[in-house]
Amino acid sequence: MKIANVETYLLSDKLEESFFFSQWTYAERRICVVKVTTACGIVGWGEGYGPADVLEAGIEFLQPLLIGKNPLEQESIWFDLYRKSLDFARRGILVASISAIDLALWDIKGKHFGQPVSVLLGGRHRERVTPYATGLYFSEGEGLANRLALEAVNYVKQGFKAIKMKVGLTIERDLENVRAVRAAIGDKVKLMVDANHAYSLREATELARKIEQYDIGWFEEPVSPEFYHHYTSLRQKTTIPISGGECEYLRYGHHQLLKNESVDILQVDICSAGGLTEAKRIAALASTYGVEIIPHTWGTGIAFHAALHFIANLEPVPGRLYNPEFYIEYDRTSNGIRERLTCPSIEMEDGCINVPKAPGLGIEVNEDALAFYAGKNQNGLKVG
Q1: Residues with Cβ < 8 Å from 8, sequence gap 6 or more?
Q2: Alpha carbons 287 and 89: distance in angstroms, whole number
Q3: Alpha-carbon span 369 to 346, nearest angstrom
Q4: Do 358 and 369 lie in a common domain?
């Protein structure tokens, strides 16, 4: 078992209609995936979260450390990659590049042993996970609150038990939108809000207090991820649970959130924080603080299935017979790459999604779709 080849693919899909949130506008979905092949022909797939072109450069930088290594020794490989990047990338894109490689190695390991990744992580505590629909982004034109309400109702009709919407326009407009969505979906569906760190502490406090009456499941990234003490302060000023963590990297960054008591819910992104190898360490760290984990998930079926396996392995609350539902983020914005790249397709049944039982991540990549979306970007680029 030796790594023989590493290939990256820059995938691109222009959107028919752009959408935006408090930070940026999306007119194109652009994703970097990595394919790692062993000398005996086993293929593993991984994905990073971040600027795709920079991710590819990061993987290319790390690639010489992979060729000839035994992919089953993913922890020692992980440490070599981390040590290579430590002096100049303790946070950010190189960690996301490590994450993509790490997912591919776990996929290979599962296929080699004929076991799903969740079993190799230590076992499953659950076979089904509850998805929440991420959508309700902003779009131009009059009547935004009504459009968001109609979109939310559509998610409920699809069987979703929970929905997350964007905030971060202004306090007044956010309040109008939240009010409309809650009225449209009723009080049985969980509703969360995500500001993408749009607000100051004062503004976030004002908004939180005004929307408390709408039974908000959590307020995600209300303020800048740089201000841990603002998160801590906001938790003391509102009854809404505060969540964050998608902008943190490695166990060290997440430890800052935990030791400062900044969040009620930790949202580690497996595809940027260090892969499954590091996410499992972060989960152990969070459990010592009694903090719940609901991963941030964005991208293709590769990222989604990695999160499914991770959540299946998360320890339940000790000493409790009936545990609450464990949630996974399910992005519902326009993304042809997500819908076509991997198979089998993601299916929801009775408001839940089954954890894959097939070896590895439990998915295969549609090579035709890979070529199509890489072709839009003038071909996938081979780096090893």
Answers
A1: 32, 33, 34, 35, 55, 56, 59, 60, 380, 381, 382, 383
A2: 27
A3: 16
A4: no
Shared-domain flag, residues 58 and 123: no
pLDDT of residue 377: 57
For residues 278 and 248, membership in a common domain is answered with yes
Active-site option among 197, 230, 254, 296: 296
**DSSP letter string, 48-107:** --S-HHHHHHHHHHHGGGTTTS-TT-HHHHHHHHHHHHTTT-SSSHHHHHHHHHHHHHHH
Domain identity same for 298 and 242: yes
Mean pLDDT on 220-246? 98
The identity of residue 116, as a single letter, is: P
Pairing verdict, β 381-382 and 3-20: antiparallel
Helix (H, G, I), strand (E, B) or coil at 46: strand
Q: Compute φ and ψ for 308, nearest 5 degrees.
A: -60, -45
List, for residues 163-206, the tens digit of each pLDDT value.
999 999 999 999 999 999 999 999 999 999 999 999 999 999 99
Q: Which pLDDT tens digit goes with each residue over 5-37?
A: 999 999 999 988 888 888 878 888 999 999 999
Same domain, residue pair 24 and 92? yes
Could you tell me the CATH number of the domain that includes residue 358?
A: 3.20.20.120
The predicted-structure confidence for 88-100, as pLDDT tens digits, reads as follows 888 889 999 999 9
Q: Is 309 a catalytic residue?
A: no
Number of folded domains that form the chain: 2
Residue 167 belongs to domain spanning = 118-362
Same-domain status, 27 and 161: no
Assess whether 178 and 268 both reside in one domain. yes
Q: Quick check: 30 and 12 in contact, CB under 8 A?
A: yes
CA distances from 143 to 148, 193, 332, 375 (A): 9, 19, 21, 38
Report the candidate in 306, 298, 249 with the shortest Cα–Cα distance to residue 106: 306
Same domain, yes or no: 108 and 246: no
- Given a cut of 50, is residue 364 above it in pLDDT? yes
